[in-house]
Amino acid sequence: LVCSSGSCVSLRRVGTWIESAENEKTEKNCVSVCVQEQQVAPSRNHIGRVNRNCHTSSILTPNDKENAQRMTREELTEVILKLLVAWREPLWHFEQRLRPQSLETSDRAAQVGRMVHEVRSGVQRVAQKMQMLGMIGNFVSGLSSPEAQAPSESSEWQLLQNWDLLHCLRRDANKVQNYLKILKCRIVPEYGC
Amino acid sequence: MFCGANPRWTSQLCYPLSSIMTVSSKYSPLLFVCSLLFTPGCAFLFDWVDTASSAPLVPHFTECISREMATFSCWWSTGSFQNISSPEDLKVFYERKSPGKTDRNECPQYNYLNQECFFDANHTTAWDTYCLELHVHNVTYANEDDCFTLPYIVIPDPPVALNWTLLNLSPSGLSYDVLVSWKPPPSADVKSGWMRVEYELQYRELNSTKWKNLEIQYDPQQTIYGLHVGREYEVHIRSKMKAFVKFGEFSKSIFIQIEGSGDDGTSFPVMLALIFGISGIFIIIMFIVVSQHQRLIMILLPPVPAPKIKGIDSELLKKGKLEELNLILSGGGMGGLSAHAPDFYQDEPWVEFIEVDIDGADSSEKEDNQGSDTQRLLALSQQVGNHMHIGSSNATCFPDDDSGRASCYDLDHPDQDPLIPMATLLPGQPEDREASADRDQTTAPQTWVNTDFYAQVSNVMPSGGVVLSPGQQLRAQENQEDAKKGSKKETCDDNAKDIHFQLLVVDPENTEIKQNSTPSTSPVSNEGYQTVPLQTVDPNPIEEQQSPYILTPDSPQSPPFTPVADYTVVQEVDSQHSLLLNPPPQQQAPPPSCQSQHPLKSLPAMPVDYITPDLFGHLSQ
Lengths: 193, 621
Description:
Chain A has six helices and two strands; from the N terminus they run E-H-E-H-H-H-H-H. Chain A is mainly α. Chain A has a domain at 62-139 and 155-192: Growth Hormone, Chain: A (Up-down Bundle), CATH 1.20.1250. In chain A, strands 1-2 form a two-stranded antiparallel ribbon. Chain B is α+β, with helices and mostly antiparallel strands. Chain B is built from 16 helices and 22 strands. In chain B, strands 11, 12, 14, 15 and 16 form a five-stranded antiparallel β-sheet that branches. Chain B has a four-stranded antiparallel β-sheet with strand order 1-2-6-5, with no helix packed on it. Chain B has a four-stranded antiparallel β-sheet with strand order 4-3-7-8, with no helix packed on it. At the A-B interface, helix 3 and helix 6 of A face helix 1 and strand 8 of B.
């Protein structure tokens, strides 16, 4: 799994979640949404002019360094969790969507599907652990499995095409990774900060 | 898109050719060279050159770079427009698209000298989409490619403060390992975790042009293994954002060298010692192998046990213990081989056995009980005799009186007495005599004599010779002659008393006998037989024995006789120990009185079997 161009989200057990953001040397722990540029991005910087409205746009996230550093640990953790939980269901459906792919793109689709599955399961574990540790309060309702939970919130993500969904996932994964790193360097600065 | 086809390519390569003239030092040296030369050979670097060169180049942005993910700058180019003199002719606008809002602003900080638009930290937000536009003479030049988000344009500065330390030196003193360490770029806020920077180290020998890449890693230190003493190495490092593709420029190079005495100086004695050691070990091994040759052969190649037949000792065969081998083979020993060997003649393996087809004779008997039995037997005996004689050209067979089977011996053995092949002297019936005689004449080795089917042994000589009685015809003649003299009754009794028997010895070597025998001549007789000087047996004791088998062919000596056949075969023995003999053939009508009164019964028309020794013993009693 080569993280050539994409955000790398590493989700491991919450007990070692501090290391998770930094343990990205081993790519096997790293879940990356590696979008092939020639496939989806005609533009030079892979964006395009269209403003994609990801379904996680409603979540307030710090967009610069100062704001991120100004936030407390708990707030940062909350943001992280919100993002992760918001992506559980779309990831599951995206995985389902990628399964009946044609043989041409089966490799890539399978790869993405595997990545999506890993991210989802990682998010699940993190959320459960944090709930067990009492680090989260208000998200209990959102931590159940997507299969059991009815899609109550607006299913904006369902309107997104594959590429848009991947772009959104990539952006949010990068956010989560940055926030995790900030948290880690704040808590244990001696580990690779 | 060509840039996307190879994500490893930097964005510098994707710029139009015209912009190369305004290139700054941050472009790659290769591109710079290409721009100076302006050769078509550089066209392969830019796949879209054809399309770009055909159209007039409009003002556009060349690149946007952020060094620390907090600020960024964008550079533009005017293209082929030449009439842009004042700064007011060109403006930069941008749209920033956040979730839920979109704002449009002008470039916060212009630098017309560098044709650069700088966005400071207040105007820079990560994860928002920026789209830049150029306004030249109220004309908007916007491009789809000019939209980006901040993480994608981040190119970190190269690391600083490179240094190296010696980790260890090899025992040979020829190679060593080095630990290179550095510091992250000062502009990148790695400490707070805002930026995650990766590094790639490259090193090479000074006199070579090829760089060796080490694995991209996150730690600001790396070990280089296997450097050679005495050689100088160059090391430089470049950095990039983790999970992104764009590499920064290389850092300043450092040089690594460890002074050594050189390769040849230290290696030569070591090599010499190695060679001596190996050769010494080899000599020792060879010495061991040669001295312990046999033992090694036994260990490595154990001898395969030879096959052995169970129960048979090969030593027996060597020593010639034939009897034991015979015992084993005949099944007498444990696990014997064959159980079908006849038990009688274990000691005499040279004995041959005649097997008469009794079944065929019996079946034929049922069909025709008349005189054809004799014919069949004659044929059978002929076959047997032929077989016996032909089959064993060197063997001479004679019937063993005791067992009724013929015993054959090899003529090559000079110590054995020349005996008559009795089986071949089977006398044929009168009607068949011709046939048999014909056969006798045609086949030379045949020893058929024109005798009756059976030849009675008159006497057995001490030397082993056998005296046979003459044929039936002779007897008939004699009977006819005698019949004139006396009554039958008397002759019967007289015969019983005065039966003289004389054995004939026919020399098997004398073929004249056989050939000379004619069917018609009843003197098949003594002339046909060659007598060996034997003492004639006193008929009296024979008479006492009442042996019907001993007959005398001697016509002058023969007493008045009744037409009795020269042999008698015991048909059966009744309760009174009287013998029922087979009646003689058709020429002679047995005197019925003789049959009833005399214990010597008339001969049956057809001999059935020989008398067995134990039965013979009964007869003598």
